Structures are given as C-alpha cells and as structure tokens.
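protien #1 (seq + structre)
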Amino acid sequence: MAVAKKNQIEVGEAVGIVAAQSIGEPGTQMTMRTFHYAGVAEQVPTGLPRLIELVDARKEPKKPIMDIYLKPEFAKTHEKAKEVAKNIECTTLDKVAYIEEDFEAKTINVTLEPSELEAEGVSAEEVRKKVKGLPGAHAEVKENTIIVKPSTHSLRGMRRLTNRLRGLHIKGVEKITRAIVVRAKDGSHFIRTAGSNLAAIMKNPKVDAEKTYTNDVQEIARVLGIEAARSALVNEIKKVLDMQNLNVDIRHCMLLADAMTAEGEIKSIGRHGLSGEKAGVFARAAFEETVKHLINAATHGEEDRLIGVTENIIVGQTVPVGTGLVKLKMKL
C-alpha cells in the first residue's frame, strides 16, 4: 500500500503531455520494418506503421491475424489441430474451379476441377448449390461446367458478377485465408491465421473462446465490447513498443487507450477524432484546420472557457497545470 501511495501522481500533473512525450519520443526511433509471422505468409506491420494504424483507429488492420487456442483434447496432437485448421480455412470458388467469361454468349463459365475439390474436401453438389443461390444470376449445370447468365447484359455487370463468383464462399470461415498449426512452448498446439473473423471462430465448439485473440481492435469492440477493446489497445501498443526494445511505462499506454475509448467507441487521435472534438475553440484551431474551426465557432457564437492548456498559452495566461492550478485568496 505504501508503494502504491508513493507511485500516485501529484494533483495538477500534466499526465497527457507526459504520456504523449513518453510514447512519441521513442516512436521516432522505431524502425519501419515489417515482421514475417512464422508460417503465415504475410508481412505483418510492426513498429511505426503498426503504431500509426492503432492510434488512427483504422477500420481494420493491414494484415489481420488471429491466434486460435483449442480445447485441450484438440490441442494435444498436431493432427487434431491440423484437422480443425483445415475446417477453419476459407475455401472460395476460384480455389476449386476455373472461371472464364464468354463475352459473345454473355455468360460466365465455371469449370469445376475434381482434383481441387477432393483436396479441399468439397463436393461438386455443394458448389453447384452455392452458385445457384447467388442473387442476380441464373445458373445452368452442364456436366462439369456451370453456365452462369447474369441478369444484366452490360459488360461492367458481367465483370462485377465474375468478381463475386471468384470470392464466393464455399467452405470454412469467411475472411480466414490461411490457417497453420503452431506448437506452443508448453507442447500444446494452437492455430495462427491470416485474416480475422472473431464472431464465427468463437462459435466453433472445438475452440477455446476465452483465449482466442485477434489483432483487429475494432472487431474486438464489435464482438466483445469497448472494455475488451481498451485492453486489446493497451496490449497492442505495449507489444509494438516492447518488440522494438523501448521501455515505456504501461500506464502511458493505458492513458492513451482510455482517452480513445472513453466515449464508448474507438476514436482516433487526430483531426477526425479526439483533437477535432476538444471542448475549446482555440484548442481545436491550434491543431489542424485552423481557419475552419475559427469560422465555425464565429458563426455559431461559441464561447471558449479557457479551461485547457493550449487556449491559455494562446491568450498569454498562466497554464492551469501544476503550480498554475493553485489559486490563492488573501484576506485583507
């Protein structure tokens, strides 16, 4: 308890500025390297690109990755884990068929490849059903070929339908393009995937939903809520810094994550997020798009209460931080 009390921060300490400096200064020393994840043939951004991705609150990361932990009976052997991985990996139509456009007949010919169907463990009947169920097209089956007639006759419409056919989901979990089995330090096995689909994976009875993790923070917010997303943000920011051997106190990362998730959704740090939504007019104007903020404030008749640091620096007053927070009254 005594240690905790000693570590308490002083009232009036500019924690935001300290956190910004503590993350920003080592951030300038980060390398721009990408990291090759074992087995998953994807170049995963680390260092500065990944940090920017996190604080910008991007819709999805450049390379989403999942670590799927299995229930003990499936995690023991490599074979059992591989079987689960095979069922998870997404199979699209272009993996099991050759698709070509016939512009003269205005049709798209889908030729099934038996060897590929067998390798992926998919029946030809399953594929035919999926193609027939595709809206905006009429499908006819002729031996090993499915002839698809688009409802529109424009070439653009045909190309759009071809692209939809190529990415048509046949088997496995959507968005998971590759799944490999990795041996953990304790001898058990887990699955690492390229692509992420947390909601679908957590429904799988063979998967340990409590341990399964994705590097897509926005998806965690959608599936598990804002508190889980906040924890994931802290972990991801700390992981980026640790990977570069930069010792930054975790409390700075926690403050950053708290600020980004305080409103119940993940907001970026920038003109479209936190900096653009500050209470004071001068604080918003000092960051970016100065004229826009000043004109908007003037047209709406906004008032600046001068409660922040930036506003007071602009008007030349004492900053309400540290010793500037103390106000004395004198009795005469």
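ok now protien #2
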Amino acid sequence: MGQVQYLERACKQVLNRVTGMPFAWSANPYRGCVHDCQYCFARATHTFLNLAGSQFASVVQVKVNAPEVLRHELRRASWRRERVSVGTATDPYQPIEGRYRLTRRCLEAFADARTPVTIVTKGTLIVRDIDVLQRLRDSAGVTVCLSIPTLDRTLWRTLEPGTPPPDQRLRALRLLTDAGIHAGVLLAPIVPGLTTRDDRLAAVMRAAKAHGARFVSGHVLHLRPGVREHFLAYLAREHPGLIPVYRKLYPGAYVAESFKSKIDDVVRRMRERIGLSGEMESPISPARPIDPVQLSLFAAPHPLAGHRRAG
C-alpha cells in the first residue's frame, strides 16, 4: 500500500444523524482506513475531503478532539440516548487507534452518558478495550460486530489486504464473548462469485458458532458510484471472469433483487441449521474472567510502518 499520511484535524461534531439505516446516529473518530478493503462503501466519502477514493487507504484523517466534542454533544438536554453506530465510515480499530486511543475515549464518553453503542470492526485491537466495553454494557448496552466475510486466506489477502487475518478476528470474538460482551459476526459484505459459495458461507458460520458468536448477520455487496469503479478494477485484475457476471447482477448500485433474495434465504436457512441467531440487539450478559496472556496478544499497539503525520 505504501506510505500512509495521517492528518490531524479538529472536528466540530462527532454525532451524525442517519436516515434509511437500522440506527439513528453514527460516530467515526477517523476518516479513511488502512484496511484497504476492495469493496468498502466508504471510499466515496473521501470526496467530501476533496480527496480521491483511491486515497482512502493512504490518507487518514484523525479527529484529535473527537472525545471532547462527543462529551459536549452527549451532555445536551436534547440528547435522548439513542443507539449510536461506531465504525460506519471507517474502522474505529484500525492500527492508528493504538496510538491515538480516540475510539476508547469515545466509548468511555458513551458509557458515562449511558448511551448504547454498536461497533463494527475488523480490528483485533478492540480486545484492549474490554474493560470499557463491560462498563458500556452495564450502563447502556453494547453490541460488537466483527466483520468476517471469508475464512479463505488466499481470497482474504487480496480482498482485505490491510486487515488482521480471519482467524485472529475469531480469537478476538472468543475473548469478547468470554468477557460477557454481546458480540457476533457480520458476513459483510457477501461478495457474489467470491464468498457466496455454500461451503464458504458455512465455514464462517461454523467458526463463528465455535468462537461464541451471539449472532451472525450479513448483506450482499453494494456498489455505489465511487466504489463500483474501484471494485470492478479489482475484479479485472484478480477475477476477470466475473466482470460479465457483475454487469448483469448490478444494473445499478444494488444487486438484482432475485439474487439478493436467494442469498438471504441461503444465509437464513444455514444460520438456523447451524444454530445461530440473526438478532443483533445487545442484552446485559454476565462477564467471565479473561486469560491475561491471551489478552496481551492484542493489547499492544500495532506497528505503524510508514507513518507520517501532517498537521
């Protein structure tokens, strides 16, 4: 991927009102993501910063005052403690979080304000914050969604080149659920022609079950403008035979409804057969002791090779 430029910026707001989604609010302490997932829908958001979608993984904005701004927003009399989704436009546990700790401090603010949170991440660094997640669980409720679209390591290396390996994410899942955190797996996105094979879907679900997942959910890949071009270029390099398939399946941003219904039905029946829930809502659950040796495997900040700051 090359050198990553981290831009420290002050933000004016953290909480963003969301429409047309299962949650009402989102919060993202970073913009851009070094995980560099080929399908990431958030690539298009870099245009808001006058950057190209191709720079999504190489220029990351760090909202250095996000925890303080968030606390101010959560103290407002108008705040109704609605659920907030963290990690909708970036991964809140990408490696730079090991240095800035913005996600951790934001979660502390949510816990203090008794505001429920859903976290979406591929980052194993999340287990560093089990203590804060337990506080949040007990004060308001928290759900952790670990995104694991595939266990196939060859596919993983090209599809999600900057992410921790799938088996490490599964180990993080086990630590979270053993600590009493309501955590599960997102098959997100389900990528036509690559992760839609029954054996690949079943492999993720069985592994999720074996590692204590409270739920498995997922959705088929969306290809909105700005993401579509990047993903099709990836297919042309790695899986050129799928290009005609995608032109037929994706007349626009969303996959053909007949294909979506078929995949949704396969996932539902497979989930029921394996004995998993699709319900992501977070109840209060008792904590169990964590093995400190296991926890130490994830607690240290990731190395930041090629890191360069810019004010």
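DSSP finds eleven helices and eleven strands in the chain.
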